[in-house]
Amino acid sequence: MEFETPLIPGTLVQRYKRFLADVDLDDGRRVTAHCANPGAMMGVKSPGLRVWLEPNDNPKRKLKFAWRLVEIPGAGMVGVDTGVPNRIVAEALAANKIAELSGYSDFRPEQRYGTNSRIDFLLTGGGPDTYLEVKNCHLIRTPGLAEFPDCVTARGAKHLEELARMVEAGHRAVMLYVVQRTDCDRLTMAADLDPVYAEAFVDARARGVQALAYRANITTKRISLEQAVPVLDPDGSDRKPVKSDETV
Fold first, then answer.
1. Can you give the pLDDT at residue 247?
2. d(Cα 107, Cα 93) in Å, to the nearest integer?
3. In whole angstroms, how far apart are CA 22 and each of 61, 76, 178, 209, 231?
4. Cβ distance 101 to 174 under 8 Å?
5. Residue 8 to residue 67: CA distance in whole angstroms
6. Are the C-beta atoms of residues 33 and 21 closer than 8 Å to each other?
7. What are the tens digits of pLDDT across the range 4-31?
8. Quick check: 234 and 201 in contact, CB under 8 A?
């Protein structure tokens, strides 16, 4: 996925009201950007971080900038837009670049299933229908270890249960975690931040839901799906409980 317009660098002033961020651009302007991320954004929203915004001239948009990337010292680029994973997964599916999901003749986004839900992608024409849910991940607290989620997600736990029911109905179900950062080589669940989700993950995996994780390749020009990383069962043994009570 290439960015539609060249990104503009700046310095993060604050992220607030969940979907807004004030940024001091390198040219001296202070602007407010849309932050397409409803999560806690732990570790990637500290004031003073280098960020990259995508400008737009769409008259229908109130905000003329969107926050796309943050640069973490010693870690590299991190994508903060939670809408990006679905876009790069769609590109990868079309190009047959996800080995575990190759061989299907068709994939359709946003298909109704379960209880008042929509699956991110329904893959058909290559064996049993495959229900594919995509999640964004950019939390890291242990070097090299990505974690999901970064705050409580009741909706995420619901998705796991509905995927498990698809398996029980004779279909294939896959949860794909897209790690939008370049410094991770494995992924697990943040059991201390959302124990209910971690329990739902273990249960869904035991019932036949497949768990995949792919790291993204991120530059200021484009983001693409890069390579698979292992998905570990949650145990929380190497980390202490962390309170996520920062202002969002």
1. 33
2. 8
3. 17, 21, 26, 40, 35
4. yes
5. 10
6. yes
7. 999 999 999 999 999 999 999 999 999 9
8. yes
Check: CB of residue 25 under 8 Å from CB of residue 39: no
Listing from the earlier edge strand, what are the strands of the sheet with 106-113?
Answer: 106-113, 117-124, 130-137, 172-179, 210-218, 223-228
Decide if pLDDT at 244 tops 50: no
Q: Which 8-state DSSP code applies to residue 28? A: S
Q: Is 197 helix (H, G, I), strand (E, B) or coil?
A: helix
Global pTM reads 0.91
Q: Assign 248 a pLDDT band (cuts: 50, 70, 90).
A: very low
Q: Are strands 65-72 and 76-79 parallel, antiparallel or unpaired?
A: antiparallel
Lowest pLDDT segment from 47-61, 118-132, 140-154, 225-239: 225-239
The DSSP letter of residue 222 is: B
On the 0-12 / 13-18 / 19+ scale of CB atoms within 10 A, 103 is: exposed
Tell me the C-alpha distance between 70 and 144, whole Å.
Answer: 17
CA 24 – CA 31 distance, rounded (Å): 6
State the SS3 of 134-179.
EEEECEEEECCEEEECCCCCHHHHHHHHHHHHHHHCCCEEEEEEEE
Instruction: Classify burial at 16, counting beta carbons within 10 Å of its beta carbon; exposed 0-12, middle 13-18, buried 19 or more.
Output: middle
